[in-house]
Amino acid sequence: MANKPLPSPEVFRQLMSYDPATGKLFWKERPAAWFKYPAQAEKWNRHYANKEAFTPINSRGYHTGTVKGKMLLAHRIAWAITHGRWPDHFLDHINGIRSDNRLCNLREATHAENSRNSDVPMGESGVRGVRQDKRWRKRWQARITVDGVAKSLGYYDTMEEAIAARQAAVTKYHGEFARTQ
């Protein structure tokens, strides 16, 4: 079965409103002309009009909902309503909180940029990109991935030195998408 095409941003402007300060979507009242019977419109508006939309949060932490049989992510709809177009690539939640859909927390990103700001399981050090070397248990290694290539930043006598090296590299290589611990 082929994927259903996304409705245009204009359709979502007719269906809901977006509050950029709170990041919340709200269902708009629907005219009777959209329904087969006036009673259906009355019932829909009584239950949904002016109420928050896309409140469920999925297993990955995103607000979701369904429109015209298609499961959608709230932050993408918020972007489309605000900008009048769907994002070209990914949308990054700047603060890393996937349920925070305030406009000031959303930015377009490539896959690589979005990955730089993602949660990654951390090893024994508790810091991404810093680990105790298995061969020399007293040394700490700092690493970073840049453009898909893992780079060693060196070995350090203390975990704190390795963390400092890693954070400096994150700022240098990842720029505005840097997430330091």
TrEMBL record:
InterPro entries in the cross-refs: AP2/ERF_dom, AP2/ERF_dom_sf, DNA-bd_dom_sf, His-Me_finger_sf, HNH_nuc
PROSITE patterns membership: AP2_ERF (PS51032)
Location of region: Disordered: 111-131
Domain of life (superkingdom): Bacteria
Keywords: DNA-binding, Transcription, Transcription regulation
Domain AP2/ERF: 126-181
Short name of one Pfam family: HNH_3
MF terms in GO: DNA binding; DNA-binding transcription factor activity
Protein name: AP2 domain protein
Species of origin: Paracoccus haematequi
Taxonomic lineage of the native organism: Bacteria, Pseudomonadati, Pseudomonadota, Alphaproteobacteria, Rhodobacterales
